[in-house]
Design a protein that fits this description.
The chain is α+β, with helices and mostly antiparallel strands and about 500 residues long. The chain has 11 helices and 30 strands. The strands form 5 sheets. The chain has a 7-stranded antiparallel beta sheet. Strands 24, 25, 26, 27, 28, 29 and 30 form a 7-stranded antiparallel beta sheet that branches. A 6-stranded antiparallel beta barrel has the order 10-11-12-15-14-13. A hairpin with a 5-residue loop joins β13 (about 235-240) and β14 (about 245-255). Its main location: periplasm.
C-alpha cells in the first residue's frame, strides 16, 4: 500500500511518496518512572485554549465543464444509454451530468472544511492557504456555535499561510505564538482542530523531529509530531504545554488519509514574520540575494578542497541582483549569512527570505580555497520572478572545430550548426557536449548532450583545447575531481564534479 503525503484540508488530495521502513536491534533503557507515566492531564490547558480554535468552511463555484472532484482517481459514473426522446432522458442528463434541460453543463458549488485559530481578539485568524485557496466564500465557525463571514487579508503559498479578518460583536478568545526554535525533540505537543469536520478535537503527542523537508516548498523546515492530526486539521494550531502556538498543522504522511503518527507543522518562527507582513501589507516582502544555488555534495566538496560537505554553492548570479555588486561569483560557497552557519543548501533561502529588505549583511564565502567576507545589501524578492537565466557573451568558434574526448564526454566548440541544433543563445560561449558515454560518471551526474561547459576547475573555457589543458593541470596537482560549471539549453547553471581517473 503506497504511503501518501496529504495536506490536511478535508477535500485535499494526496501525492505519493516512497517510504522505507527499517528496524534494527537496540539496547533498551528503562525510562524514569515519571516519564513512563506521561504528562499530567491537559484538560485545564485545552479548556483554556479551545475557544480560540475555529472551524473554517469554504465554498467555491466550479465553472461549467470543470472537474474538481475530491478524488481524481475515483471511478466516474457511466451515463445510461437511453433512446432519444425517452421520458427518463432529461432526468438522467441532470442526475449524471449535472446538465440543464438543454444539455448544457451547469456551474456547481463545492465545499471544504479546515481549521484555524484566533491571534488577535479584534478578529484576526490564521489558517493554511490551501484551506481557503480559490474560495468564493469563507465562513468561520466558533466553538460556541456562532458563525461569521471572513475576508482574506493576505496569503502566502510558499509557507502555506493565510490571514483572515472577521468582525466580532465582542472581543474573541485569542492565543499567542511561542518560540518554536526552543522546542526540543521529545517535548510534549497538543493539537486542536476539526478533523473530518469533528469540531474541537484535542490530541496529544510529542515533537518527533525538527527541520523536516517534505518537498512542499522552498522554505520547508517542519516540526514533525505524532499527535494525531487528520484531514480537516489543516490550519489548526500545535501548542506547547504552556499554551503557546509552536506550529500550524499542515500535512501528514499516510497510506489512507488518516493519522499514522506522521504529522507536520510549519514552525511559528517561520510563519510569524510572514503573518505580520500579510497583516500590514496584504502580501509577503521577502529578502532577495540574487543567486542560484545548489547543494555541496561530497564529490563537489572534494573538488573544492573542502574538509566536509557544507554550505550553498553559487551556480549563477543575477545581473540585476544585490549579489553581483557585492562581488559574489559562481563557484563561491556561502558558509555563513548574517552570522548564521549554512550547514546545508536549504538553510540559505529561509535566512535570506526572513532578512529585512535593505539590510546590509556579511556573507562569508569560500573561493578557490580562500575564506573571505562580502557585504551584501539585501533586496526585495519579486515573487513573480522566474529562475535566474544565465547570459554569457562571446564570439563563435570556427565552424569545424576539433572534437575532444575526456571525462566520458565528447565536446566541441560552438558552431552555428550546433547552436541551431541545441537551440543555444546567440551570445553563448563555452564548449558544447555532443555525446555522453554510457555508464560514465558524467551520465550518472545527469550531464546531457547540448549542455555547455563554461568552467573547468573554476577556470573559464572557450574551446575543447582549454578543457583538455585544464584537466591535465588538475591531474598534475593531485586533484581527484574536476568541477565543471554547466549551462543547459534553457541557460540554467549548475556545478557537477566528475572523477578524473
Amino acid at each position: 500500500m503506497p504511503i501518501q503525503l496529504n495536506t490536511l484540508m478535508r477535500r485535499s488530495g494526496a501525492v505519493a511518496i516512497a517510504a522505507l521502513l527499517a528496524a534494527s536491534p537496540a539496547t533498551l533503557v528503562a525510562p524514569p518512572a515519571m516519564a513512563a507515566a506521561g504528562p499530567p492531564s491537559v484538560a485545564d490547558l485545552s479548556a483554556e485554549l479551545i475557544d480560540a480554535v475555529v472551524n473554517i468552511s469554504t465554498s467555491q463555484t466550479v465553472a461549467a465543464g470543470s472537474n474538481d472532484d475530491d478524488d481524481e482517481d475515483a471511478p466516474k459514473q457511466p451515463m445510461p444509454k437511453l433512446p432519444p426522446g425517452s421520458p427518463f432522458e432529461e432526468f438522467f442528463n441532470q442526475f449524471f451530468n449535472n446538465k440543464d434541460g438543454k444539455g448544457l453543463q451547469r456551474p456547481r458549488k463545492t465545499e471544504a472544511l479546515g481549521s484555524g485559530f484566533v491571534i488577535d481578539p479584534s478578529g484576526i485568524i490564521v489558517t493554511n492557504n490551501h484551506v481557503i485557496d480559490d474560495a468564493d466564500d469563507i465562513e468561520v465557525n466558533f466553538n460556541d456555535g456562532s458563525k461569521l463571514k471572513a475576508k482574506l487579508l493576505g496569503r502566502d503559498k510558499k509557507v502555506d499561510v493565510a490571514v483572515l479578518k472577521v468582525d466580532p460583536p465582542k472581543p474573541l478568545k485569542a492565543v499567542k505564538f511561542a518560540d518554536s526554535d526552543k522546542v526540543r525533540v521529545g517535548d510534549w505537543a497538543m493539537a486542536i482542530g476539526n478533523p473530518f469536520g469533528l469540531s474541537s478535537t484535542v490530541t496529544l503527542g510529542i515533537i518527533s523531529a525538527r527541520n523536516r523537508d517534505i518537498n512542499s516548498g522552498p522554505y520547508d523546515n517542519y516540526l514533525q509530531t505524532d499527535a494525531a492530526i487528520n484531514k480537516g486539521n489543516s490550519g489548526g494550531p500545535l501548542f506547547d504545554m504552556d499554551g503557546g502556538v509552536i506550529g500550524i498543522n499542515t500535512a501528514i504522511i499516510s497510506p489512507t488519509g488518516g493519522s499514522i503518527g506522521l504529522g507536520f507543522s510549519m514552525p511559528s518562527a517561520t510563519v510569524q514574520p510572514v503573518i505580520e507582513q500579510l497583516r500590514l501589507y496584504g502580501e509577503t516582502r521577502r529578502g532577495w540575494l540574487g543567486v542560484r544555488i545548489q547543494g555541496v555534495s561530497d564529490d563537489i566538496a572534494e573538488s573544492l578542497g573542502m574538509q566536509k560537505a557544507q554550505g550553498a554553492l553559487i551556480a549563477g548570479v543575477d545581473d540585476k541582483g544585490p549579489a553581483k555588486p557585492a562581488g559574489l561569483e559562481p563557484g563561491d560557497v556561502i558558509l555563513k549569512f548574517d552570522g548564521h552557519d549554512i550547514k546545508e543548501m536549504r538553510d540559505l533561502p529561509r535566512l535570506v527570505a526572513d532578512t529585512p529588505v535593505d539590510k546590509k549583511v556579511e556573507v562569508v564565502i569560500l573561493r578557490k580555497g580562500q575564506t573571505m567576507t562580502k557585504t551584501v545589501t539585501v533586496a526585495r524578492l519579486d515573487e513573480s520572478d522566474g529562475a535566474i537565466k544565465a547570459s554569457t557573451r562571446g564570439t563563435e568558434t570556427p565552424e569545424k572545430p576539433k572534437i575532444t574526448k575526456a571525462l566520458g564526454l565528447e565536446m566541441s566548440g560552438i558552431t552555428k550548426e550546433l547552436r541551431d541544433k541545441y537551440k543555444l543563445a546567440n551570445d553563448a560561449k563555452g564548449v558544447v557536449v555532443t555525446k555522453v558515454d554510457n555508464g560514465s560518471s558524467a551520465e550518472d551526474k545527469q550531464v546531457k548532450v547540448g549542455d555547455v561547459i563554461l568552467q573547468v576547475g573554476q577556470q573559464a573555457v572557450s574551446n575543447p583545447e582549454d578543457v583538455s589543458k585544464r584537466i591535465e593541470e588538475l591531474k598534475k596537482s593531485g586533484t581527484k575531481q574536476a568541477l565543471l560549471l554547466l549551462s543547459n539549453t534553457q541557460g540554467e547553471l549548475r556545478f557537477v564534479a566528475l572523477a578524473l581517473n
